[in-house]
Design brief:
The complex is a heterotrimer, with two copies of chain A (about 200 residues) and one copy of chain B (about 260 residues). By secondary structure, chain A is an alpha+beta fold. Chain A has helices at about 5-15, 25-30, 35-50, 75-80, 90-100, 105-115, 120-130, 150-155, 170-180; strands at about 55-60, 65-70, 130-135, 145-150. Chain A contains nine helices and four strands; from the N terminus they run αααββααααββαα. With about 260 residues, chain B is mainly alpha-helical. Chain B is about 50% helix and about 5% strand. Chain B has a three-stranded antiparallel beta sheet. A two-stranded antiparallel sheet of chain B has the order 1-2. Chain B starts with 7 loop residues before the first strand and ends in a 6-residue tail after the last strand. The chains are: A alpha+beta (about 200), B mainly alpha (about 260). At the B-C interface, α2 and α5 of B face α1, β2, α5, α6 and α9 of C.
């Protein structure tokens, strides 16, 4: 028969080797059912206490018990396993750009500029982020909502005002320069761009 | 650990040794013959079983036993790899060369034992065979032990995409490139701030419903802002987003949302 | 600045969270390079000692440091891992041994040593396990692939380098062949030179 210390070490090893929560019933299988559920629960509580001072903790979840790193150590651990920073899709960024540069605009305006339909989800994403909101309605059939950017948007991008966004003439000019560089012979207006970008 | 390897497994039980003669129970024989990895493995088995000196192999008995086994395999309709027949030819060739009288040892090369190459191959194969067993005895991840992998608690931190001003410029650039906007939408620096104030006015009108014209202006912010606010108001009126009313000359001017009536 | 105890707890958490061995260089990243390699090595040794009495051990492998369960606890832990890993056939193991001890080798070299043909499936089995890969091609007709073992192979078998492979056993220690006079090292070169080249 196993002593409690050895049983605890086995429980510990089994839980450390499993990234998924392990149900109590599975933990009992470790000992062929020779150790009762109550005893195992007590050993788990002891284990939890033993780990109290460490960067990893033993927690009980709906699916069972598991070891997990403590949240406050994530900044360190994240350096080891950097997550790729999430990125917005091109559709979201273009929509945001249109709202920022052309506000107040309706969804129809955005669609006209983008040349494709704009899903409600895109606008919801930006609204949920607190970067755009409805600033009014246009008095046309359907009274479409007019979107504008918020103070939060400026704060999050580190801008004091929209004027600090790159001026559009400059944007257009770089585009022209680029087009000229790639098509030196022909007159290469920025709008004579290859199709297929849609 | 020398030659104590099980030569075969019969119903899971290792067969360590075989009867000295060739008689083997038919079932066991089949299992055993199939267990040989090839002619070298079979030869090694014969050599080790007979306690032959591998460095001085008696070619005649070895060849005879080898051929007996090959014949047995054939009779049992075991699939006989071509390599077994090639090895039979090699053994017979060596045996016949051993029977030739040795020429006087003039040149070192010519005294080379005809068995040398076979012995080299047998020793090399045996080494690898033992090495394979030792590798299999090493503790193996997933079989004998498990890697530890505790969960990394990161769900709590929802990471939102970062956007920089240049991302927006880039997005706009892509739009320009695609939608031939350049000609139609020349937006100046001023116009942009006008647009910002258009949103700002609309937003405050949503809160206050109706504002007096003067309330929209904050002289403390300087003339530029006053002008921009004024331009924004004109633009909003032009786009029919606000209504500007005045009951008479010099009466207060009121600004309200064009859609305010529906509220 | 972190104290050594906290640094150790962070190292421990990072290693417990990684099923793959973590190289020392990556461990340094945990602390933004603020803690020197020597200090980390010392902390790792302390950690190893702290874990000496448990069912999990900290080991140093070819690919870095890893926590893993101790082999003697397999009888318990296997009850939680009902899916049995593959037992490799002799053909697979011999092929693996030849690649490990004689690398880099071609399929032809392996066949020459084993005296039988080596099926593509055997090599695929080992490649799929991540234990061997193609390290180059021999510049002979057909440019056959040269196989070698991977870091993963060493890690999975608990080795730090190929030098830690079990030593090859010399079954016959002395050469009594007449050929021994002319080829005194007839046995030794077989270890050093690529086999199958003759």
């Amino acid at each position: 028969m196993l002593g409690p210390t050895e049983a605890k070490r086995i429980l510990e090893a089994a839980l450390l080797a499993s990234p998924e929560p392990v149900p109590l019933a599975d933990l009992r299988r470790l000992f062929d059912g020779q150790i009762g559920a109550d005893t195992i629960r007590r050993l788990l509580e002891e284990l939890r206490a033993e780990w109290a001072e460490r960067a990893v903790e033993l927690v009980q979840l709906a699916g069972g018990w598991r070891f997990q790193t403590r949240r406050e150590f994530l900044p360190f651990l994240a350096r080891l396993h950097p997550e790729k920073p999430p990125r917005y899709s091109r559709a979201v960024l273009e929509t945001l750009a249109i709202i920022a540069y052309r506000q107040p605009v309706t969804r129809g305006d955005i669609e006209e500029i983008r040349g494709v339909s704009v899903s409600a989800q895109i606008l919801q994403t930006l609204e949920a982020r607190g970067w755009i909101d409805v600033v009014g309605h246009r008095e046309t059939p359907g009274r479409p909502a007019l979107y504008g950017t918020t103070t939060r948007f400026l704060d999050d991008l580190g801008l004091r005002s929209l004027e600090e966004l790159p001026p559009l003439e400059e944007v257009a000019r770089t585009l022209e320069l680029e087009a000229a560089a790639t098509q030196p012979a022909a007159e290469a207006p920025a709008d004579a761009r290859p199709v297929g970008a849609e | 650990m020398t030659s104590a390897a099980p030569v075969a497994r019969l119903y899971g039980a290792p067969i360590e040794t075989l009867p000295p003669d060739l008689y083997i129970p038919p079932d066991a024989l089949e299992v055993m013959l199939e267990a040989f990895q090839g002619p070298l493995d079979l030869l090694l088995y014969l050599i080790r079983r007979q306690n032959m000196n591998i460095l001085d192999i008696p070619m005649a008995p070895l060849t005879r036993q080898y051929l007996d086994y090959v014949e047995l395999m054939r009779r049992r309709n075991l699939e006989l790899a071509a390599e077994y027949l090639v090895m039979a030819a090699i053994l017979m060739e060596i045996k016949s060369r051993m029977l030739l009288p040795r020429p006087p040892a003039t040149e070192a090369e010519e005294t080379a034992d005809p068995r040398a190459e076979l012995v080299r191959r047998l020793l090399e194969y045996e080494k690898m065979k033992l090495a394979a067993r030792k590798l299999d005895e090493l503790p193996q991840l997933g079989r004998d032990l498990f890697a530890v992998a505790v969960a990394v608690e990161r769900e709590a931190v929802v990471r939102l995409p970062q956007v920089h001003a240049r991302d927006l410029a880039e997005a706009w650039r892509a739009l320009l490139a695609r939608a031939r906007l350049r000609a139609h939408h020349t937006v100046t620096r001023e116009a942009l701030s006008v647009r910002e104030y258009m949103s700002r006015i609309l937003r405050s009108l949503r809160v206050h419903r109706v504002l007096e014209f003067a309330e929209l202006f904050d002289p403390a912010r300087g003339i530029a802002v006053l002008v921009v606010t004024f331009l924004a108001l004109l633009e909003l009126a032009r786009e029919a987003l606000v209504e500007i009313t005045q009951s008479g000359a010099f009466a207060p001017i009121y600004v309200r949302l064009a859609d305010a009536r529906s509220h």
